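Hello,

Our lab assistant flagged a job as stuck in the queue for most of the afternoon. It eventually completed. Since we weren't sure the result was trustworthy after the delay, we are filing this so someone can double-check. Below is the sequence as submitted and the structure that was eventually returned. Let us know if re-running is recommended.
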Amino acid sequence: MTDTTIDLLFNWGSIIFLPCLPLTYILLNKRNGLQHCVRLAAILGFSSALVRVIPEVITSSTSPHFHAIAMPFLHAGQILNAACGPLIMAPVSQLSCIWFGLNERTRATTIAIVANNFGGTIGFIIGPAIVYAPECIPRLLYLHLGLAFVVCVLTLLYFPAQPKSVPSPAAEVLLVHSTNERNDSWKSYIKDIWQCLKNPSFLLICNVGGLLSGLFNGWVSLYDVILKPENYTELQAGWFSFGSSVAGNLGGLIFAAIADTRPFRRSFKFLINTSCIFCFLSVVWFLLMVHTFFYKKPIIVSTTLTIGLSVGLAGCFKVLDYLYSTKHLLKLCFHFQNLYQQQFLFNGVILLVLFYYLLRLIVVN
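-- returned structure --
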């Protein structure tokens, strides 16, 4: 398998994510849109896992034609899995608004985001533990299939469209007025984009959050390359990534509870600025311990502990900035809450792709 093929498989997520965003917006603004999005995501997730297993069923991995047979199924599986991305990430704000009260929304948003990140976090451990040799890869595929099957069945059996009682006036507006008044979804989509683009605060927070999320995710995926000159192994790089993700998840849950308290409920600007500053300082600390284009030798001698602390703090404050930016944008664009989430993710995904290729070119050259 060539590097070009690997890059394409990796980037199907971003490629398919972009055209699916408007479709997700249209679906979310239909009656029971959140329920339809989640069920569709569960079906697509199971379908993608099933498609990737098919080559192992219909042929043997030792067959000379296995590669030619398997590649179309791998690409199809990646495309289906990529289509789940906006269906899972974009409705987060609608989920917290429909199902939770005012003093619970930040925690609800955090748990929804962290739950998605937690899967990737566990992957840093489960993958190497199960796949310790090339012939063990089918085990991981079958594990994915089993998990996707359970989620799909549970979602189809019971996932109500809305709570029995409306938790807040905002939820009532979202459930009653938006579904009844928006008949021309495409015109509404364009109108909402224009309204948001005219809001300077929206543009600033959206681009800051998207920049940080996209660039950080691209940076984390290259820990093994960045830390190789410092004599850290791929296994250690995997643990650093795991620690960064765990720190982000735990920090998000803790500080989300703080943000829901009355003293901080109106202090999102302060929380966003604080998170950005501490994330920047953590990244600077990390950069001083590795080789860069500005100096040939690290300025600060690194240890496993200091590298782990720097990436852990960076991951923690990056997640906090994402969460606080998300909630602040919800206040800015109350009537367009599906749209702002998609724009936020849109910027992050584009920058993730660009930053990945930029870093790859720099590292290779």
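-- support follow-up --
The delay was a queue issue, not a problem with the job. The result is valid. The chain has a mean pLDDT of 79. The two ends are 21 Å apart (CA to CA).
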